[in-house]
């Protein structure tokens, strides 16, 4: 037994005072036993076995439906090191507050100890964490999203390093009281805390995925971004995708988009051009390391998909629909009378008899949505019909290009290629997107979301830009190309100009051909863009005028954006790399009338 682990578990037990302690072994029997317990206590329902075998349904508390960025803290010893984009409280003070909340917080509950591996067990690119939680929902989700169990303890050995991840729903269960179906604490008592100097995570008060499945955003992004910076690698909010050309050549892309902007759809894209194939390697997080050959190699540290359900349909993402055929957990979707799930944008008629995500009778006719816009599915990645045979390759896959992007109804064209690495880092640093329901807060407001890492970068964002620049210096000529896309441009009537989904492959294919040195590009003030005829649009029902609009460089609109970009960059003060400031000046010059 790893002494550090044993000691930590004993300490937490003394502080949280659970009724029992259970060490998770990661087996199917364990999952089923916990599922049965949750069904027996009315927290979960089994879906109809004939429709959706071995699948569970949950409804959260209405206050606990998404990540809570305003309750998320990066607690570095110095405030400056957390930077202007993170909430900060001094480690001593935050620990005092949390210790007060954790005191006796697991009364009446079982404390589960979950040893998990982010990345294939034993890969040199993988890391181990141990989550302690008082939520069986978290245990079942962690079974799907990470590699859990005894083999992880074996890999950890007597003196291996692990990231301690402490989680409580923050709702002690008094004797004789019935548990609520979704125990959690009120918003002002929720705390999602990271102590990067100690590789430590403390989360309190929420059962929602991004706040409670601590391997995901907390470890694999916020803590791992710190580790990566120290150790010379990258932890990114990126899907990983393999494209295979008709001649068999393989290309790998890693793409960063903000939450709920279509990463899962793009990760499972079905190319619409004949002869091209695509395979999914990951849909949310990439850990990327320089290999011995000087190229970058990426692994997906996760083992499952925790995806946004609404909008997922046979037409938007048929591969996800097939992935969801069984062994899933659904949270906050509609529950149909015949024991299945439904959500808005599923492209099948709304059920006439159902319950909405708040547990009220619902028939599709009411003005309110039946599923919460951030309703989620949890499902093993291995079930995806287009999962790559190499998705668990311990060496990772070599990255040919990066893609950044966001959801923007105007201004940003369909695709731009960076002029060079520094310009690509500038494109990442100035990425912006309309906000979505993945965070509690307003939806549809344009905000800068550098590298789609705004809620996930565990240190000063200015230093993060420097880390990207340093990686480019190290990689030299082997550095991947960098592109910026916007699938979400709209016309004056509010209709999307680009069909998106599978048709996005046409843009990806242009990128592959650029990487192979085969496709043309022309210089514009924004960067390199496909000249007329360079994107293969055969069989696509988009007229020439619309294409022109999608690829138009609206210099007036961009000039209008410049003060906002300048103010955004100014937030990083003296930690904004000079090379990024110079990129801004060059853009201003290129846009000058
Ligand atoms: C997610 C998110 O759940 O980004 O992946 O919110
Ligand atoms: Mn995400």
Explain briefly what this protein structure is.
This protein is an alpha+beta fold and 593 residues long. The protein folds into three domains: 3-43 and 71-232, Phosphoenolpyruvate Carboxykinase, domain 1 (3-Layer(aba) Sandwich); 238-283 and 400-591, Phosphoenolpyruvate Carboxykinase, domain 3 (Alpha-Beta Complex); 304-383, Phosphoenolpyruvate Carboxykinase, domain 2 (Beta Complex), CATH 2.170.8.
Question: Keywords, please?
Answer:
15 helices, single chain, 22% strand, Phosphoenolpyruvate Carboxykinase, domain 1, Phosphoenolpyruvate Carboxykinase, domain 3, globular, 593 residues, alpha+beta, binds manganese (II) ion, binds oxalic acid, eight-stranded mixed β-sheet, Phosphoenolpyruvate Carboxykinase, domain 2
